Automatic annotation (TrEMBL):
Listed Gene3D superfamilies: Transcription factor IIA gamma subunit, alpha-helical domain
Domain Transcription initiation factor IIA gamma subunit N-terminal: 4-49
Protein name: Transcription initiation factor IIA gamma chain
Biological process terms in GO annotation: transcription initiation at RNA polymerase II promoter
Length: 67
């Protein structure tokens, strides 16, 4: 899964996508502009997480074997 997909699946990402879809459907925005907004959202989320989040998480998974 690409990193941006994680952001878009967040609550704010899903709300943004839903709103943009509605605006495109109602003719308020062009599909091209909606895509530009999502691309900027991806860039902004990446930058915010790189510069403002100080905590890191490491997840270790133990493989299960089934017989």
């Amino acid at each position: 899964m690409a990193t941006f997909e994680l952001y878009r699946r967040s609550t704010i990402g899903m709300c943004l996508t839903e709103t943009l879809d509605e605006m495109v459907s109602n003719g308020i925005l062009s599909p091209e502009l909606a895509i530009q907004v999502l691309v900027q959202f991806d860039k902004s989320m990446t930058e915010a997480l790189e510069t403002q989040v100080k905590s890191k998480v490491t997840i270790k998974v133990k493989a299960l074997s089934f017989s």
